[in-house]
Write a structure and sequence with these properties.
The complex is a heterodimer of chains A (195) and B (382).
Chain A (H helix, E strand, L loop, with lengths): L20 H7 L61 H13 L5 H23 L15 H4 L2 H5 L5 H4 L1 H29 L1
Helix pairs in contact in A: 2-3
Chain B lengths: L1 E5 L5 E5 L11 E9 L4 H5 L15 E9 L11 E4 L2 E2 L27 E2 L16 E4 L7 E2 L6 H7 L2 H11 L7 E5 L3 H12 L4 E6 L2 H11 L2 E4 L6 H8 L5 E6 L9 H9 L8 H9 E9 L12 H6 L3 E4 L4 H13 L9 E6 L3 H10 L6 E5 L4
Classes of the chains: A mainly alpha (195), B alpha/beta (382).
Chain lengths: 195, 382
């Protein structure tokens, strides 16, 4: 390799200079409009806005914070909070344990919350069976779009097919396992009753 | 009201829910006219985000009309058309007082490491989101902005997160004139990051993905060179070759937890939830940046630890910069760029779904069917 062929990384300067400003401005709409790093909205990182719109020193406290779960890294339940899905059932107990016992830096905090999510799903599926609006495990996946939006065509040649084939297993697997366990339980119960 | 509700991983439906009510004096209730599905919604959809409760309504990209205001609201009136940043923030805590709106400390009792976000699990505060007919908007005097008359609704809804995050990602890269910028991911955030990199003086922009339609969009709307990583055994080696063995001055990681490109990361992350998502793009960013370069991370990850090549980042003397986007800080300048045609968010919209078809919309976006890049959700449409 002669010296002119030595790549930029091994010499002082880049071998290929970037295109000129004129060339870039002609090709790219708005090139250089934010050229000055000191004149960009996120510079400097810390800014002190004169008016954020807040007309309080500390916000009014939203009613209903008593008993609401919170991170133990907070001094109190924040003055404003979401009330979308309060804790309930076994999943609520698991989640409350995660919040009451472990800080955000502990893996146990997050693993308990993930466990609570899975229990919540099953609680809700079972609850839906006794309502007039049971879960529809197929239609709720939107899988019919595989037919209407070119499932096969869209995936042709894509490498992510390797893991997308697992998605049906992840979605249907627990239902199949649940149905199997249910059938087994019914069979055993029937045997017991026959004796 | 009709609202998207989460029924467990990969399962959604539209249900009747109570219309949200004013729960705090500075709340507003907004009737949603247009919403979007964000790539980060897929982390919830796939069950990757801890404390995503059944019945939760997703959606942190939405615009609408003010339907009701609390007694202390001064800056908005019923009937105002508003765009709402995905961040919920108070405007008065230690962090908001320093412009870190995405890190507000007064809105999320469930965690201190992340601020409040609409429709993004209880880990971000437990607020239902905007893929519904109505949504509760806390701190109405602080977050929402009236939509300028000249702005297209589809630009407005994309400015509430995806476009603002792309623009922010380019700023985090501290791009200097003539820099070579690599953008990982040609989704909505990556496309705007690529456009924005030129505004900040990049000399060369290379966008990496594996979906042909997204790479075509990167060439068309962001004037970028593109690299399909499926065509290369080792995309990092290819990027080194293409940058004369230096590596990129700046790498913008605009992918996050669902990253493809490494089966082991996919299995242990999005599939089995053993880490806070697949760290493939993050590791490629670290490896593709030149020594002393900057990696900007705007891809979202869960709170569980990730298998990240931190040793390489240290040995290379990289600057790693990241945050959730403080959206409202970006808006005044972004409004100029959109009006001047320098940033063109609505060019990314490929699909529009009625709210009633929300399960179908998520499946199409998640599985990337039909060339889907950015799906919008229209409440009340048939």
């Amino acid at each position: 390799m002669t010296e002119p062929d030595v790549p930029s990384a091994y010499v002082r300067d880049k071998r290929t200079a970037p295109p000129s400003r004129e060339e870039l401005r002609a090709r790219i709409p708005g090139w250089g409009a934010d050229l000055d790093p000191a004149d960009r909205p996120s510079h400097p990182k810390l800014q002190y806005p004169a008016d954020t719109g807040a007309h309080w020193h500390f916000p009014d406290r939203q009613p209903g914070s008593a008993g609401r779960e919170r991170s133990i890294e907070h001094a109190f339940v924040t003055p404003v909070f979401g009330t979308a899905q309060p804790l309930h059932g076994l999943s609520g107990s698991i989640r409350r344990l995660a919040y009451d016992r472990f800080g955000e830096g502990r893996l146990a905090h997050w693993l308990l919350l993930i466990a609570g999510d899975r229990v919540d799903a099953w609680e809700s599926h079972l609850r839906s069976l006794v309502t007039g609006h049971p879960d529809q495990p197929v239609t709720e996946t939107g899988v019919r779009t595989e037919r209407t939006h070119g499932g096969l065509r869209s995936r042709t040649g894509r490498s992510d097919r390797r893991h997308q084939v697992l998605d049906p297993v992840l979605v249907a697997g627990p239902w199949v396992a649940g149905a199997g366990a249910g059938a087994l339980a019914v069979r055993r119960l029937a045997r017991l009753l026959r004796r | 009201m009709r609202a998207m509700t989460y029924r467990g991983p990969y399962k959604l439906r539209v249900e009747e829910k109570d219309r949200p009510r004013v729960e705090h004096p500075n709340d507003a209730i907004v009737r949603v006219t247009l919403a979007a599905i964000c790539g980060s919604d897929l982390h919830l959809y796939h069950g990757l985000m801890p404390d995503t409760r059944i019945g939760h309504t997703f959606g942190h990209e939405f615009i609408g009309v003010v339907d009701e205001v609390g007694p202390s609201v001064q800056h908005l009136q019923v009937g105002d058309r508003v765009m709402v940043p995905f961040n919920i923030f108070c405007g008065s805590c230690w962090f908001c007082a320093r412009g870190l709106y995405s890190n507000c400390h007064n809105v999320n009792p469930n965690a201190t490491a992340v601020g409040g976000i609409y429709g993004y699990s209880h880990t971000t505060g437990g607020y239902d989101g905007g893929q519904a007919e109505y949504v509760r908007v806390p701190f109405a005097d602080v977050g929402p902005v009236k939509i300028p008359d000249w702005m297209h609704d589809e630009d407005a809804v994309l400015l509430t997160d995806a476009a603002a995050t792309g623009y922010f990602g380019a700023q985090l890269g501290e791009i200097a004139e003539g820099d070579t910028v690599v953008v990982l991911g040609a989704g909505p955030v990556g496309l705007i990051a690529a456009q924005s990199s030129w505004l900040m003086g990049a000399g060369r922009v290379i966008v990496v993905d594996h979906l042909a339609e997204r790479l075509a969009k990167a060439r068309e709307m962001a004037y970028a060179e593109t690299l399909d990583y499926d065509e290369h055994d080792d995309v990092v080696v290819e990027l080194k070759k293409q940058t004369d063995f230096l590596g990129a001055d700046v790498v913008i990681e605009a992918v996050g937890a669902e990253a493809d490109g490494n089966l082991a990361q996919q299995l242990t992350g999005p599939k089995l939830k053993l880490q806070g998502g697949s760290a493939t793009a993050l590791n490629w960013a670290i490896d593709a940046a030149r020594k002393g370069g900057t990696v900007s991370v705007v891809g979202a990850y869960g709170p569980v630890p990730n298998a990240v090549k931190f040793g390489d980042a240290m040995n290379k003397g990289l600057t790693l910069r990241m945050n959730q986007t403080p959206v409202k800080r970006q808006w005044p300048r972004m409004f100029e760029h959109v009006r001047n045609g320098h940033l063109t968010p609505r060019q990314m919209v490929t699909h529009r779904f009625p709210l009633e078809d929300i399960a179908e919309a998520y499946h199409v976006f998640s599985a990337k069917l039909d060339g889907c890049i950015k799906p919008l959700v229209v409440p009340g449409a048939n």
